[in-house]
Amino acid sequence: MKIHRIDRYRVRLPLRIPFETSYGRLTEKAFDLLLVTDELGNQGIGELVPFEQPDYIEETIDTARIIIEKHLIPLIKDVEIHHPKEVSLLFNEVKGNQMAKSSLETAIWDLYAKRNGESLKTYFNGTRAQIPVGVSVGIQTDLTKLTDQITEYVALGYQRVKLKIRPGYDLKPIEVIRKKFPNLTMMVDANSAYTIKDIAHLKQLDTYNLAMIEQPFAANDFLDHAQLQKELKTDICLDENIRTLKDCELAFSLGSCRSINLKIPRVGGITEAMKIVDFCNEKKLLVWLGGMFESGVGRALNLQFASQKIFTFPGDISASDRYYYEDILTEPIEIQKGKISVPDGLGIGVSLSIETLLKYGIYDTIFTK
Ligand code: OSB
Ligand code: MG
Fold this sequence. Notes:
Its EC number is 4.2.1.113. It comes from Enterococcus ureasiticus. By secondary structure, the chain is an alpha/beta fold. It folds into two domains: 3-117 and 353-368, 2-Layer Sandwich (Enolase-like, domain 1), CATH 3.30.390; 122-341, Enolase-like C-terminal domain (TIM Barrel). The protein has helices at 61-76, 85-90, 98-115, 143-156, 171-180, 199-203, 223-231, 245-254, 270-283, 296-306, 320-323, 354-360; strands spanning 3-21, 24-38, 43-48, 130-132, 135-137, 161-164, 186-189, 213-214, 236-238, 259-262, 286-289, 335-336, 339-341, 361-368. The strands form three sheets. The chain has a seven-stranded parallel beta sheet. The protein has a four-stranded antiparallel beta sheet with strand order 3-2-1-14. It has a three-stranded antiparallel beta sheet with strand order 4-13-12, with no helix packed on it. Strand 7 (186-189), helix 6 (199-203) and strand 8 form a beta-alpha-beta unit. The longest helix is centred in the first third of the chain and has 18 residues, at 98-115. It is globular and about 60 Å long. Bound molecules: 2-succinylbenzoate (OSB) and magnesium ion.
């Protein structure tokens, strides 16, 4: 197939509840949808997920737009693509910028599946139709409000809760929630807010029966994580550190973690994500699917990918209404008894509500033959 046209929606969706992490507060999510059309008129959709601030990792939505338009589209525009696995090879000469790459790579996977009349999960040997899901809960210093929020999620059936923490907001909220829900599968995520000096403090987390502690230290730090993992009973999970399969190999050989939060966009797309799944399977590393506050498009992709047998630990794949008043799909993604169904249409399996997209977004064309 050949890419003949790429259209885009630049969208801003207001969040139902502002989301606070160790590094900042988010009130709306900006994202782009890329619509990639082939020579036969088939169309695939990909989501561009980075934030507006370079505070989670270094990519931002603005830097990603430049990389896409100036550097990635020229690498695919005149090429006959036989299989979407070729896209990550074509992108190899652009260093880093995984989320920019992923937006186009996942759109081309969706396009390929639609062209072949298949659901995307077929290509991952996805077997499950319903995915157990968890929820990530932002920093809420009013612990009564925090408890109420989590009580609501537990009542909706969310099978795992992840609390965001930072220095000064860790032991107390964990203790309060653990007391109220003694059997809840619970974990925490620090988004790099601690340093090696906090080891003694972090060791206290061992007493709360946490499933794991996500990304306590800096995004490029494998050594201090390895030191902490040696001293901690609780599993460490790496998120920001993991951009490539090589990062997983490094983390595994140093003992920096026992679990990987895999986000398709953070590793440059589906092809690299599949390699990481294979590696984790071989090495018995716990791998689970993370999220980036995706709209329905990225959420649908995550559900397709999470249909693989290996994803038994509930991912950060909540229902659309956990984040947004309105999603940009014709059918919102809903939770039932703690599970979300994998959309069963072609490709990622969902269709766009153009009306909603135009209400919250701007449409343009970024490439035509
Ligand atoms: O660290 O996993 C993270 C959201 C945005 C950026 C980073 C993270 C998160 C989440 C929520 O924790 C994931 C989601 O529910 O989409
Ligand atoms: Mg994280």
